[in-house]
Amino acid sequence: MTQPDFRSIERARKLLALWRGAVGGEKSKARGALMRVLENSNLTLRDLEAGLPTTLDPEDSLSVREADTLLLALDGSPAERDAALTRLADLPGLSVAERERVLRFLDLGRLVASRADGWVQTQADAEITAEALTRAGQHLTESEVARSPGATLADSARDLGFLRAAQLVRPERSLKASGEYQAAFLASLCAALSGIPASSHGPDSEGRYSVTAHLSVNELSQVRARLAREEAGLRRELLRAARLYGREVGQQKL
């Protein structure tokens, strides 16, 4: 059997890419040119990309899911795998199982490091630097990224990376609360200011309540100021909620 002409394969791949991006008459011309190259070189679409059908007409590939083709390419040459990983990192619609398969090949730390500068420019947390985000990316696990709700693997790595970075640059602090309701208010306030989940605890053996949160110096100052300012407001809201709940219960039929 004659060995494939690699120049013809590269030419056919370029025509396939042109066909995919073209519209109208240009798309029709690219289709015809591609089919002629394939026929004259004794090639099929499968020779251009793993997962494509063994036919000449590129329209036959429309029923093929892009993810399926790219996932098959992970078993190809190093160059094919790298090209597939680049696209798969930003491809939406992957199942958890497919994300897990991709992550067996994708270096999360390198992905975050390569995009950290750009990601930092588009977020509002002034505490996080590209260096901090890169460090955080080294601690991401395949399992958590695969199951994260991000639309793409890159989105999940970005969101989890920012959360880890936010924790890295903010020390963990333990704040005292006067009771259960103030602890709940304080935990939500801390989370809103830092963007990091905070937790309330208590009562302990002595009946005390506390909140654990990651806060910068500035955020800690804001928490204290807002707590002092809103303490009376919190009591008013609790009383209002109690009255509304009492009215609701009183109107229920026994």
Short description:
The protein folds into 3 domains: 6-102, no CATH class; 108-168; 172-250. It contains 11 helices and 3 strands; from the N terminus they run αααααααααβαββα.
Question: Which short descriptors sum up this protein?
Answer:
single chain, 254 residues, mainly alpha, 3-stranded antiparallel beta sheet, 11 helices, 6% strand, elongated
Structure explained in plain terms:
With 254 residues, the protein is mainly α. Helices cover 61% and strands 6% of the residues. It contains eleven helices and three strands. It has helices at residues 6-21, 24-40, 66-73, 78-88, 96-103, 108-121, 130-137, 142-147, 153-169, 180-194, 217-250; strands at residues 172-177, 199-201, 209-214.
| Element-level helix/strand string | HHHHHHHHHEHEEH
Strand content: 5-15%
Helix content: 55-70%
Count of separate DSSP helical elements: 11
- What order do the strands of the largest sheet run in, or round the barrel if closed? 1-3-2
C-alpha geometry: elongated
| Poorly predicted runs of 5 or more residues | none
Mean pLDDT rating:
92
User: What is the CA-atom radius of gyration, in angstroms?
Assistant: 28 Å
CA distance, first residue to last residue: 87 Å
Q: Describe the sheet with the most strands.
A: 3 strands, antiparallel
What class, by secondary structure content? Answer: mainly alpha
- Say how many strands there are: 3
Topology at a glance:
Elements lengths: L5 H16 L2 H17 L25 H8 L4 H11 L7 H8 L4 H14 L8 H8 L4 H6 L5 H17 L2 E6 L2 H15 L4 E3 L7 E6 L2 H34 L4
Antiparallel strand pairs: 1-3, 2-3
Helix pairs in contact: 1-2, 3-4, 6-7, 6-9, 7-9, 10-11
